[in-house]
Write a structure and sequence with these properties.
The chain is mainly α. It is built from 9 helices and 5 strands; from the N terminus they run H-H-H-H-H-E-E-E-H-H-H-E-E-H.
Length: 259
């Protein structure tokens, strides 16, 4: 901006520099525009910070509302969750210390869309926050196929400490939905690195449970949803895609239980 201002005045500067008054006028004009630039930059930064704070508050309020006002679970569902929690305690000692982590900045950063680098950055941030080395993980993306079938994401182990996570992308996804999918796949990598072996009947639900214990429950609750996507290959032209293995109600129940 400052360069543009100076460039704008260069063709006319020789008219002003001819006298001492002209030189003073030029200096005053340049100083004026520099002050305006600095004030605009400071205002923009303050607005950006305030927007981020309001955004964080909005998502936190939404999350708290879902926790407090979620549907009451049926007794059968509660028993299934208790069975899952007992399995975690008895087989893995459940030594994970429940905590909450803040990834709200990604909601703002990728509100208008995300690419491979963005997904890699999110994965790196998640793993580093739980003390897992990112350098041995490869992150790839793929477009959801024309039939809208298949997994929303999947993990492939590579040796003892390496792995590959693949994340589907679609213009129909929003960042909340995508962030929840990325977290789930990162939890698979966490289990692989920490050599946590899970019975097949519990595997996917345990992975969601692990995400809650490690502090990402909020983002599963906000992101796990069913999307209706236009498809020429569905009878009613709409195909539903559901993220998550534990429902929002089940995740909310676990959050209320452990925090």
């Amino acid at each position: 901006m400052k360069d543009r201002i100076i460039f704008l005045f260069l063709p006319y500067s020789y008219l002003l520099i001819g006298s001492s008054n002209g030189l003073k006028t030029l200096i005053i004009i340049l100083l004026f525009f520099c002050v305006v630039y600095c004030l605009a930059k400071a205002t923009n930064r303050r607005l950006s910070i305030n927007y981020f704070r309001l955004s964080c508050k909005y998502y936190s309020d939404t999350y708290e509302s879902l926790i407090l006002n979620g549907k009451i679970l049926e007794d059968e569902k509660i028993q299934q969750l208790k069975l899952l929690l007992d399995y975690a305690r008895n087989n893995h000692n459940a030594k994970f210390v429940p905590r909450r982590r803040n990834l709200d900045k990604f909601y703002k950063k990728y509100k208008k869309g995300i690419d491979l680098k963005g997904i890699q950055l999110i994965s790196k941030t998640i793993l580093e926050s739980i003390n897992i080395d990112y350098q041995f993980l490869e992150v790839k993306i793929y477009e959801i196929n024309q039939y809208h079938s298949g997994a929303l994401g999947y993990f492939i182990p590579r040796g003892l400490f390496g792995g590959e996570i693949n994340i589907s992308i679609s213009s129909s996804y929003d960042i909340k939905f995508l962030l929840a999918v990325i977290i789930h796949e990162c939890m698979h990598y966490y289990q692989h690195v920490r050599q946590i072996s899970i019975d097949e009947q519990f595997e996917e639900k345990f992975t969601d449970l692990l995400a809650v214990f490690l502090g990402f429950g909020k983002y599963l609750i906000l992101g796990y949803q069913t999307l209706l996507i236009n498809s020429d290959y569905a009878l009613d032209n709409l195909k539903s895609l559901t993220a998550g293995y534990l429902s929002v109600e089940e995740l909310s129940y676990i959050e209320r239980l452990i925090f």
